[in-house]
Design a protein that fits this description.
- Pathway: Lipid metabolism; fatty acid biosynthesis.
- Keywords: Transferase.
- Belongs to the thiolase-like superfamily. Beta-ketoacyl-ACP synthases family.
- Pfam families: ketoacyl-synt, Ketoacyl-synt_C.
- This protein is of the alpha/beta class.
- It has a single domain, classed as 3-Layer(aba) Sandwich (Peroxisomal Thiolase, Chain A, domain 1).
- It has 11 helices and 15 strands.
- The strands form 2 sheets. Strands 1, 2, 5, 6, 7, 9, 10, 11, 12, 13, 14 and 15 form a 12-stranded mixed sheet that branches. The protein has a 3-stranded mixed sheet with strand order 3-4-8.
- Strand 11, helix 9 and strand 12 form a beta-alpha-beta unit.
- Helix 2 packs across helix 5 and helix 8 crosses helix 9.
- The chain is globular.
- The N and C termini lie close together (11 Å).
- The relative contact order is 0.19.
Length: 388
């Protein structure tokens, strides 16, 4: 059964809403990546944050107040009309919520614990609900007064890509008639210090697939799709997942798990590699990820495919990355353009050459693939395309 992507709400370092994000994305605009101190002791790091005021959590849901939920609310407000219409059409019990996250409200929790250690009590605005992994789905369900399935998937950097797969399954099984799906993650000290401890964070803007690449930049985002059986121009045509369980944090070096997820996505969409017009790479700019992904892509696309990593513009948004980059594919279909690959142009001679998307390059074929790879060898590939 076709899973149509009827509406898109998006907020990230590239902007708020489809128009702003599209302008920045297709221009290769990296101005949302800013050097900031205060995240990691004694380091100034580029981070891709959302600047300015965020939507206020309604008073009656105050105990669920967190930056993560504020970002989520920003994305939801952009498509509130379409969501309310789906609820009116299908009923509150037939609309589901599936989200991916890795941080939830952990930043509020860590500040609360810091306060507790200093003052021997938690601050007045601290509530355990803020840091529950299920918090984003619970908040959205409470705000919209929904009673259908509402849950969160947390598989690190594939979380929200898996959320889209799970949403389609709810439609296929007849459990839901519409699903609000996507992902949200907010900047916080825990993740920035964690990736720093792994020596994975770059002091400069990330440089994917370059001989000079030296690590990731962290970002934040919220992305929501309204997925349903109601025909729309754009759909989730296929998806594939694998888990090679090679290592707790390092990818399997030959790229076999990544290759398996891409092949499964093509098979589920009943497509051949040459029918893909653009590939959004996971492209974190770490030594191991880029090497592995290059091998997998060169193996699957021997004739080449236009591809790019968008992380120098958006940062790596962790639990939101899969949905964010699926949204970039959605926007590519709307605008008939592909996001350019932003880097220093210094190819790594140890890696197979890939076909880099250029600024203002037109989208020639109407099926696009997006890769997301995570800790533990967890791999997901999605195919977004023109609905049949």
């Amino acid at each position: 059964m076709t899973a149509y992507l009827n509406a898109l709400g998006i907020i990230c370092a590239l902007g708020r809403g489809q128009a702003e994000v599209s302008r920045s994305l297709f221009a290769g605009d990296c101005s949302g990546m800013r050097a900031e101190s205060g995240w990691v002791p004694e380091r100034v790091l580029p981070v891709a944050g959302v600047h300015g005021e965020l939507a206020t959590i309604p008073v009656e849901l105050g105990q669920q107040s967190s930056r993560n939920n504020q970002l989520l609310l920003e994305a939801a407000l952009q498509i509130e009309g379409e969501i309310r219409q789906a609820i009116n059409t299908h009923g509150a019990s037939r609309v589901g919520i599936v989200l991916g996250t890795s941080t939830s409200g952990i930043d509020e929790a860590s500040r609360g614990i810091g306060h507790y250690l200093r003052e021997n009590q938690f601050p007045g605005d601290y509530d355990y609900q803020q840091q529950e992994l299920s918090a984003p789905a619970n908040f959205l369900a409470d705000w919209l007064q929904l009673s259908g399935p509402a849950y969160v998937i947390s598989t690190a950097c594939t979380s929200s890509a898996r959320a889209l797969m799970s949403a389609q399954r709810l439609l296929d099984l007849g459990v839901c008639d519409a699903v609000i799906c996507g992902g949200v993650d907010s900047l916080c000290k825990l993740t920035l210090n964690g990736f720093t401890a792994l020596d994975a964070v770059s002091n400069e803007r990330c440089n994917p697939f370059s001989a000079n690449r030296n690590g990731i930049n962290i970002g934040e985002a919220a992305v929501l799709f309204l997925m349903s059986k109601e025909p729309a121009p754009i759909a989730l045509l296929g998806s594939g997942a694998s888990c090679d369980a090679h290592h707790i944090s390092a990818p399997e070096p030959s790229g076999k798990g990544a290759l398996q997820s891409m092949r499964k996505a093509l098979a589920s969409a009943k497509l051949q590699p040459e029918q893909i017009g653009y590939l959004n790479l996971h492209g974190t700019a770490t030594q191991h990820n880029d090497a592995m992904e290059s091998l997998a892509v060169a193996n699957l696309f021997p004739a080449g495919v236009a591809c790019s990593s968008t992380k120098p513009m958006s940062g790596h948004t962790l639990g939101a990355a899969g949905a964010l980059e699926a949204a970039f594919c959605w926007l590519s279909l709307v605008h008939d353009r592909v996001p350019p690959h932003v880097w220093d142009g210094q190819a790594d001679p140890a890696l197979p050459a890939l076909q880099w998307a250029q600024a203002a390059e037109a989208l020639e074929k109407r099926c696009l693939m997006s890769n997301s790879f995570a800790f533990g060898g967890n791999n997901v590939s999605l195919i977004i395309g023109e609905a049949p």
